[in-house]
Each structure stands twice: as C-alpha cells, then as structure tokens.
Design a protein that fits this description.
The chain has 2 domains: 146 residues, Roll (Pdz3 Domain), CATH 2.30.42; 188 residues, no CATH class. It contains 12 helices and 12 strands. Strands 5-4-6-7 form a 4-stranded antiparallel sheet.
Amino acid sequence: MERPTAAHRIVRGTSRLVRLALAAGLAAALLAGCATPHTRGPRVSGQDKDREAAIQRRLYVKEILSMNTRLHNVGYTVARAGEPLCPAKAPGFGMVVESTPSFPEDLREAFDEVMKPGDRPVVVGLLPGGPADRAGVRVGDRIVSVDKESAGEDDADLQEALFTAATQALRERRRTLRFQLQRGALPVTAEIEPEVVCGYFFRLELGEAPNAYSTGPSITVSQGMMRLADTDEYLAVVLGHEMAHSAYGHLEAQKENSAVGGILDVLSALAGGQTHGAFSAAAGNAFSTDFEREADYAGLYFTARAGYPVDHAADFWRRMSLRNMGTISRDTDHPSNAERYELVERTAAEIDAKIAAGEPLVPNMDEKTGDAAGSGRAEGAAAPDRGVVRGSE
C-alpha cells in the first residue's frame, strides 16, 4: 500500500476542517430555524442571580436550623422520659449546638452569615425550660469552654470537652458544669445542671426521602421524614421507634446473626462452594420484621412516657402509605403498613388502659426471651431492621 505523502496529509486535514465547518454551519442554520420565545422579558444579570442565590442559601440554612432544633427538642423530651427504659445514659443539656465545619461546604458561608459563630460552636436552639434555658443560655451564644476545657472549633471538639468536664464533675460529685460563653462582645458564664437522659444523640440528614434510622448511639432523621412527621406527636412516634431499636440492641443482634451466617459462608467456601455472602445476609435479616414489630410496640411506650398522646399514633402509617402505596400490603424486611397500623392501634389501647389503671408505662415483657411481649404478629394481619423507618421517593 502506498504511504501517504505530506501533500496527502494536508489535503486530508483540509477536508476534515471543511467538514467541521459545514457541520457547524448546518447546526447554526437548524438552530436559527428553532422556535423562539414570543415575548421579551427583563434580563437578569449574573450579579443579581448571585445575590438571590445567597439569600436562598441563608433561608435554607435557617430552615435546617429550625428543623434541627425541633428534632432535638422532641428527641430530648422522649429521651428524658424514656431514660428508665434505656441501658445507655448520658447528661442532657437541652441545647442544640452547631459549628461551621458541620455544614456542607456550599452552605458554610450562609451559616456564618446567619449565626456569626466565628471559630466557636454556637447555640442554635434551646429546649424551653430545659437545663441550658434555665441557666440563662441564649440562642447565638458562642461556647468558649466547659469547666476550663476548651470547646474548640467544631462539634467533635465540644463533645470531647463535655465528656472530659462531665467525667471530672462526677469524680468531684459536682452537679453543675460551668460554661464560658461569648454573647456578642460580652463574656458570659452559665452554670448548667444536666439531666440524665437516654444516651442517644440526634442528627438531621439532608435529603427529601423520608427516612430515619438508628446506629446505636446515633439516631438520624432526614428532612423528608421531618416533613412527613409534621406534628411533634408523629415525630415522637418515629423517635420512640428508633430509641426502642437502640434500647433493645437490634443492630447488635443483627450483626451477631450475620456473623453466624458468615461462618456458614466460610464453611461452604472450604467445601468448594461459593455463596457470595448469602448466608450472612440471610441470617442478618432473619428477624428483621420481628425487630420492627418490637420497635413499633416498645417505641410507643417511649412516646407515651414523654407525654405525647398516642390515640392517633397509628395514623402515621397511613401517612406513610400515601407516600408509597407499595408498602400498604408488602412486608419484606419491614411489616406492611397495614399490619403496623393495627399493631400500633392495639398498643395505644394497651397504654391507655395502663394509664387509666395507674400502672407503670413499661412494655409487657416475654418471660422466656426478655423481649417486649406485645411485639408479635397483629391478629388478622400478615405475618425487625437496622432501625429504619423507611419511606420512598
């Protein structure tokens, strides 16, 4: 085959450029023939768009702070009343603290403009009548130190300072912690006497899919779930459910079950089989629906102990079904919403009867297993999880 000469390469390159030019011209002609708007409205400059974008980010941050305060206040109320039912305890202060590093990078400037935290954690919410509120703490106060332990620059530093200070206070048999605050330009001291609450902390997750889950000490609720649980009573149902998952060790139990299944996977592999973790997955989910039933049952006791009415708590599951009708009858790793409604209705009646009789608000326990006895299958309904109250987009 004849090798191309320099002249051939030039001709080829030129023809390629010609084809590109023709294609560009054709595209321009086609675009010129496209339909265009009929009216000529005002033009918006890039500067105006940037200014409005900054306003909307600040509004979004304010909504996050409001939502987070509501989550913590309802959660604190349930954790305080449910403390006798929780194996893990913690000091409760009744205040919501945030710092700039805890926000996504594109919202940090807006948070700084809204709360002006400087380089300190800042109080963004208070439980009315809670320990911090009683001590005179105000929204906007920046936390400098706790019992001379520096509060640092972010939430992790503050948690470490609180832990160190609280541990030392226990050793010294002191009931209060001294918070050094900065209120504007003024230094302020607050002596806070914490309350004993369930040892779980609450986290707001950005995202509109309605979801909530427990990882043991942490209970996470999405923005979408906060909107769905639009009353404090509904939110207390969700949080009671998640606290029950943590209090009854469901996550740990599923990990143990999964480990047992993992042994079968290993034995199968040694025998020449490939299970790809099937036994581990199956064992981990073996009792997931039962754990969910127990969390629905025992969780309503957490809700009721906190003073929230439970007479209409079951309606929450009807609201969930409006979001995703597939959950009305389907039960996979969670019971169907129809069953959950019936179970919660029966549990609410049981709680009301105990209140009327002056009996303690504690779940009925299975004498053989130590599990909450009312968490079994609802009569007439279809026959437990990683602590997830799930929804669907």
